[in-house]
Amino acid sequence: MQTKKGVVTLMVHQKSLSEQATTRFSFLFSTLQIGQLLRNAGITKSFGFSSLAVFQLLFSLVFEGRNWFRLLESERGESLPGKDVIYRFLNQSTFAWRKFLHSFALRVVLHFESLIATSRTRVFIIDDSVLRRNRSKKAELLAHVFDHTTGRFTKGFTMLTLGWSDGFSFAPIDFVMLSSAKLANRICEIKDNFLSAVMATSAGLNPSIANQMP
């Protein structure tokens, strides 16, 4: 770890990813100016590990094929932030994650645009793949949703995604997790009575029914 102006910067890839992969990650974050995008979205920390270090650590887990708990149990565990730091970082209500996503997607698309010919066709793609949550039981608005790839219902959410593509590359721009519109297919309702009433009204039900939802 390196300390600069009281802020701890984490070298997230040492002892796990190859040196070549580490170089590529550093180049990617520098080229797309991820640190600036995080700051613009209000995703900052006042002490301890920097927001960029925590984000880079979480980002790397996908490519390491490991979850957070296994990483904490590894040799690197002592040098990593605790699970409370990660939970607060992901659940901080003041962090504008959607703004960050939009800015990040724009940077990626602009980078692609600089590499492809102007004659190539660009399109927007809407994808409604299923996000399976077979082990979940109490996730709010968890439902049985229809998976078009298997032709069967599965437990989870519909991940509606808007993406940009040039025919070769795909960049997600925005997304929303959808539950089932049918109450009979929902496994767990939302706990907030006000939001339940709004959803019930939009579904054409009597809002008073929502107040009876658990």
Structure description:
The protein has 214 residues and is of the alpha+beta class. Residues 1-16 and 201-214 have low confidence and may be disordered. β6 (152-165) and β7 (170-178) form a beta hairpin. It folds into two domains: 2-91, no CATH class; 119-210, no CATH class. It is globular. The chain is built from eight helices and seven strands.
Write the topology of this structure:
Elements: E1 2-4, E2 7-9, H1 19-31, H2 34-40, E3 48-49, H3 51-64, H4 68-73, H5 83-91, H6 97-113, E4 123-132, E5 143-147, E6 152-165, E7 170-178, H7 193-202, H8 207-210
Parallel strand pairs: 2-3
Antiparallel strand pairs: 1-2, 4-6, 5-6, 6-7
Helix pairs in contact: 2-6
